[in-house]
Write a structure and sequence with these properties.
single chain; alpha+beta; D-amino Acid Aminotransferase, Chain A, domain 1; D-amino Acid Aminotransferase, Chain A, domain 2; ten-stranded mixed sheet; globular; binds 4'-deoxy-4'-aminopyridoxal-5'-phosphate
């Protein structure tokens, strides 16, 4: 049997998974989403992802499409049905289907779509060499803390980075401050201190970022939650990015300029190892 998707109460073949043309997600990007990594068939950091879903829904006054325990069950069911061992589960909730009108519909029911995708571990080459990033203007709205499906500025930045042969775009505001990546959080290491933007409305509070900060707190590594500029990033000893799909990935150049030695730094590698240990612990605990 081929891959299945979950669409509003039904498991359907992925190729035939469809929503109504008047789904408000389709017409207005009126919805939110989550992406949870799956390793050895286990959803990693599932609870904080569900917490963030609840936060995003609450901020936009969208009702949960099903209860949280039911959503947990459906996620597991889809991962199991698709035999997903390593990859991502994507779920999105929109305000539902209603005649097109900007105001919230009085009666629409929240719509839920879930898909899964296989994803291999990062290649040896990527881990050995790190990845290049490209700085791009941050064109987004002032509520980046909400994981909205409205991603046009992120898409444009990622495409521009891709065209510049970079793996990711680091988004920079008019003052030269790096907020985050187009789909990742941004970090630098300077004089032994690990620096990442604070969790405000200006960034998406990444779950990988949150977990890594928690894990690193017990290691004696100095952690500083403050904004940094592109100039600081270029002068940093190390840089890296975090996300549910990349975990902790070394960044070794920005706009073609080497960061530090131009190789993944030791603090970055230590943090990646700490994060992977935590994933392994979660898998053991679940089995
Ligand atoms: N920032 C943005 C803009 C993102 O889209 C993502 C990925 N969803 C992240 C950061 C990283 O978040 P997480 O660690 O939860 O994947």
């Amino acid at each position: 049997m081929g891959r299945l998707a979950y669409v509003n109460g039904r498991y359907v073949p992925h190729a035939q998974a469809m929503v109504h043309v008047e789904d408000r997600g389709y017409q207005f990007a009126d919805g939110v989403y989550e992406v949870v990594p799956v390793i050895d068939g286990v959803l990693v950091d599932e609870e904080p992802h569900l917490d963030r879903l609840g936060y995003s829904l609450g901020e936009l006054k969208i009702a949960w499409p099903v209860t949280r325990p039911v959503l947990r069950l459906i996620l597991r069911e889809l991962v199991a049905k698709n035999g997903l061992q390593r990859g991502l589960v994507y779920f999105q909730v929109t305000r539902g289907v209603a005649p097109r009108d900007h105001k919230f519909p009085a009666t629409a029911k929240s719509a839920l779509v879930i898909t899964t995708k296989r994803m291999p571990a990062p290649s040896e080459a990527v881990l050995r060499d790190g990845v290049p990033v490209s700085s791009q203007p941050d064109l987004r709205w002032p509520r980046r803390d909400i994981k909205s499906i409205s991603l046009l500025p992120n898409i444009l930045a990622k495409q521009a980075a891709f065209e510049a042969k970079a793996f990711e775009a680091w988004l920079v505001d008019a003052a030269g401050v790096v907020s985050e990546g187009s789909s990742t959080n941004a970090w630098i290491v300077k004089d032994g201190a690990v620096i990442t933007a604070p969790r405000t409305h200006d960034i998406l509070g990444g779950i990988t970022r949150l977990s890594l900060l928690d894990l690193a707190r017990n290691t004696g590594i100095k952690l500083v939650e403050r904004s940094f500029t592109l100039a600081e990033a270029l002068a940093a000893d190390e840089a890296f990015l975090t996300s549910s799909s990349a975990f902790v990935l070394p960044v070794t150049s920005i706009d073609g300029k080497k960061i530090g030695t131009g190789k993944p730094g030791s603090v970055t590698q230590q943090l990646r190892a700490i994060y992977l240990d935590n994933v392994t612990r979660q898998i053991k605990a679940a089995s």
